[in-house]
Amino acid sequence: MKRMDYTQAVVRIRVLEKELLTQEKFEQMLEANDLEEVYQILQTTKYAKYIQDDLLATNYEQILTNSLLDEYRFIQEIAIDPEIVSLLLLKYDFHNLKVLCKELFTQENLSHLYSSLSTLNMEDVKEKLKLTDETEGDFVLSILHSVQKDYLNFQDPQRIDLLLDRFYIKALYELVHSLETPLFKRYLIGKVDFNNVITVLRARNQKKDLNFLEEVLLDYGSIEKEKLLFSLHDSIRNMIQQFKNETIGSHLIEGLKAYEVSSQLVSIEKERDNYLLEVIDEARNIHFGPEPLIAYLFKKENEVKILRMIFIAKLNNISKEKIQKRMRNIYV
Fold it and tell me: FRET partner for 277 with CA separation of 20 to 30 A, picked from 50, 152, 292, 304?
């Protein structure tokens, strides 16, 4: 990877960053009386071209998806290394693999759950799966056959997500490792550490044992697995003391404190996203290389998450105060 090759791409990204929604715009939408008023505010932004006159108010997901699709297409056009964009697209591929596995095992049609942001052609994947048991050289088929084998052995639908999460993190690790970019490595490690703590709390809530937890904890994090295993039966107060000196410490502590009060895992997920935003935002000081491209996409996805929260809240008459409690930081 030649960093200087990204000079023009970074210049174009700096222009796009100025079009990201501002704190003021989000405040206006939070104050809006209903979803129609939110749409009116968005008509003054880059989202205007996605809001059609005949669009039903409840079809906000179409606006968000079309916007993200265009952003990803643009970044793919200007990225020198195509695999760079896979850092963020990979999660949509694995989301679709989860849906496919659930379709196969339940015999239900779940096509409405597939993400159009995935790089996989799911009809092709289904066809290959029917035609062959040969997986050599086919990354996707190899994963699907592993999940099928596990399901036949355990008959536990819950394991589908757990197994595919492990495959996702392994694929993400290999991609990050091949790019040899310190910022992306920090992003991956932080993501794994937060997700492992969330897994500990989820296992506790489901009254799972240590053997289960040991099997589902993800690799490639910085928090020792032994420490995570020992925390399964710890109080939240003890967990705060145990993890306060970890790299993700300050954000994790905020999340655990909020979780102690609310018992809602979304409290920690919010702090995870805020931490990862801080990590990725370091790209603002990088002028040559792929980091600003991924940082822009990360911020765009964060923007879309916040918009989705606002849309759902306005549809369900949820108060501004409740939305703000769940909202991630907009930008660092």
Answer: 50
Highest mean pLDDT among 32-36, 152-156, 259-263: 259-263
Q: What is the DSSP letter of 25?
A: H
pTM of the model: 0.84
Q: What percent of the chain has pLDDT over 70?
A: 94
Total count of residues recorded for the chain? 332
CA dihedral 205, 208, 210, 213 (to 10 degrees): -80
Q: Are 41 and 32 in contact (CB under 8 A)?
A: yes
C-alpha–C-alpha distance, residues 264 and 259, integer Å: 6
Give me the helices (H) in the chain, please. 7-17, 23-31, 35-42, 60-78, 83-106, 122-131, 139-154, 158-179, 182-205, 210-216, 225-230, 236-243, 249-262, 266-280, 291-315, 320-326
Say how many domains are in the chain: 1
Residue linked to tokens 């928090």: 223
CA separation for the pair 199, 217 (Å, rounded): 7
Give the CATH number for residue 152: 1.20.1690
Q: What is the mean pLDDT of residues 216-224?
A: 94
**Structure tokens belonging to residue 192:** 């794994």
- Average pLDDT along the chain: 88
What is residue 266's three-state secondary structure? helix
Enter the tokens of residue 217. 């904890």
Question: Quick check: is 99 in a domain?
Answer: yes
Extract the tokens encoding 316: 């369900």
| pLDDT (tens digit per residue) in 66-86 | 999 999 999 988 888 878 888
Q: How many CA atoms lie within 13 A of 169 on its CB side?
A: 21
Handedness of CA 215, 221, 225, 230 (dihedral sign): negative
**Cβ-count burial of 107 within 10 angstroms (0-12 exposed, 13-18 middle, 19+ buried)?**
exposed
Structural domain includes residue 149: yes
Quote the tokens at residue 160: 């589908």
What range does the domain containing 167 cover?
Answer: 82-180
- pLDDT confidence of residue 329: 63
